[in-house]
């Protein structure tokens, strides 16, 4: 049992009739409750702001406002909303009760207050609040545990995906670091374009896996120094669909499978494997395509020398939106000119 559990329940008694207020205070204190008093709506709000009570016993008729309005204000504030409010009133008509319920009151007492009924209603409301507080507390703990577990699973997924990317690169030493660099660049482009954090993260994971289909391409073809035959090139092109087949049934929270499938599609329909055009291609895939091509042109391959940064930027700039998304190209040009880019991208 905690120190909080040992504290008596606190009750705020509100009545502008000082005699009635003191009588209620005496009755409640005799039952072990910690009681504070107030005589106006203004005092109620100030007392609640100073320290939240466990329950408010509130007279409807107050000198500066009425209990309905005070109840409405307290229930509109998330901080004070959980406090049960018992309205005490001389009004017994149905309209007044409905008005109190609409304002958010939990219970009603008719004045003059029956002391036995008062204690029963107070105990019941405090017990309900105790259960509500218990559930709220444990729900908060559960939420924290879920967030912690989600973060752990997210980190595990990233480690697994990165390990897969590194394994692929063992088969093609000329592509070492390609997946990671493409992932960083694609995510940076997406962020520069104003995509949501969720989309940026999805592009990052899709980029880490975009070449997973090359696992089905013989290493001698990947590293072939000369011109490829039509059959060899067809096997290379097949890697986008093979990668899609590998990841399509994994329940990623992002369209990773489509990113893997579409990263070689081009706006003019000249890409593969489906020959998609324009907005038929996912925006995330269009961004990935720009990052992938730029990184590939910057790197040495057995069949061609690496291009310099200026030459790569010129080629991308000259595309004029024929094959690559213009907004993604413009964002890429901005990103690569930022300080520190060259340090992580050879």
Describe the 3D structure.
The protein has two domains: 3-142, Rossmann fold, CATH 3.40.50; 172-344, Orthogonal Bundle (Hypothetical protein af1432), CATH 1.10.3210.10. Helix content is 58%, strand content 7%. It is built from 16 helices and five strands. It has helices at 3-6, 18-30, 41-50, 67-76, 94-103, 115-171, 178-192, 197-208, 219-222, 230-237, 239-247, 256-262, 283-298, 309-318, 326-336, 341-344; strands at residues 10-14, 34-38, 55-59, 85-89, 107-110. Helix 7 (178-192) packs across helix 15 (326-336) and helix 11 (239-247) runs antiparallel to helix 12 (256-262). The chain is elongated and about 100 Å long.
Helix and strand arrangement:
Elements: H1 3-6, E1 10-14, H2 18-30, E2 34-38, H3 41-50, E3 55-59, H4 67-76, E4 85-89, H5 94-103, E5 107-110, H6 115-171, H7 178-192, H8 197-208, H9 219-222, H10 230-237, H11 239-247, H12 256-262, H13 283-298, H14 309-318, H15 326-336, H16 341-344
Parallel strand pairs: 1-2, 1-3, 3-4, 4-5
Helix pairs in contact: 4-5, 7-8, 7-13, 7-15, 8-12, 8-13, 11-12, 12-13, 13-14
Structural class: alpha/beta
Q: Per DSSP, what share of the residues sits in E-state strands of 2 or more residues?
A: 5-15%
List how many beta strands DSSP finds: 5
The gross shape turns out to be elongated
CATH topology of the largest domain: Hypothetical protein af1432
- Count of individual helical segments: 16
N-end to C-end Cα span: 61 Å
Helix content: 55-70%
Q: Name the poorly predicted regions.
A: none
* CA-based gyration radius: 34 Å
- At the fourth level of CATH, the homologous superfamily of the largest domain is Hypothetical protein af1432
Strand order of the largest sheet: 2-1-3-4-5
Q: Quick one: biggest sheet?
A: 5 strands, parallel
């Amino acid at each position: 049992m905690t120190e909080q559990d040992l504290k008596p329940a606190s009750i705020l008694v509100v009545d502008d009739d000082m005699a009635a207020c003191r009588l209620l205070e005496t009755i409640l204190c005799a039952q072990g409750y910690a009681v504070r008093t107030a005589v106006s709506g203004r005092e109620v709000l100030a007392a609640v702001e100073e320290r939240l009570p466990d329950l408010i016993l509130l007279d409807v008729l107050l000198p500066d406002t009425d209990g309905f309005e005070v109840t409405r204000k307290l229930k509109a504030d998330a901080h004070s909303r959980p406090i049960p409010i018992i309205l005490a009133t001389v009004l017994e008509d149905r309209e007044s009760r409905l008005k109190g319920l609409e304002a958010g009151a939990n219970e009603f007492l008719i004045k003059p207050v029956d002391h036995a009924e008062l204690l029963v209603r107070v105990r019941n409301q405090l017990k309900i609040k105790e259960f509500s507080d218990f559930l709220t507390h444990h729900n908060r703990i559960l939420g924290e545990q879920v967030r912690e577990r989600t973060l752990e699973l997210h980190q595990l997924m990233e480690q697994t995906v990165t390990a897969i990317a590194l394994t692929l690169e063992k088969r093609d030493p000329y592509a070492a670091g390609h997946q990671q660099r493409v992932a960083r660049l694609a995510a940076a482009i997406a962020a520069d374009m104003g995509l949501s954090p969720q989309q940026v993260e999805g592009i990052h994971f899709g980029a880490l896996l975009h070449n997973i289909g090359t696992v089905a391409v013989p290493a001698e073809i990947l590293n072939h120094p000369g011109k490829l035959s039509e059959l060899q090139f067809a096997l290379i092109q097949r890697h986008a669909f093979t990668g899609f087949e590998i990841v399509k049934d994994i329940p990623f929270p992002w369209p990773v499978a489509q990113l893997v499938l579409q990263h070689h599609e081009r706006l003019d329909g000249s890409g593969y494997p489906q020959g998609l055009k324009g907005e038929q291609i996912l925006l995330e895939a269009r961004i990935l395509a720009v990052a992938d091509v730029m990184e590939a042109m910057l790197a040495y391959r057995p069949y061609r020398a690496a291009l310099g940064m200026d030459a790569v930027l010129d080629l991308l700039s000259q595309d004029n939106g024929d094959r690559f998304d213009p907004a993604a190209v413009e964002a890429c040009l901005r990103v690569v000119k930022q300080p520190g880019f060259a340090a992580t991208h050879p």
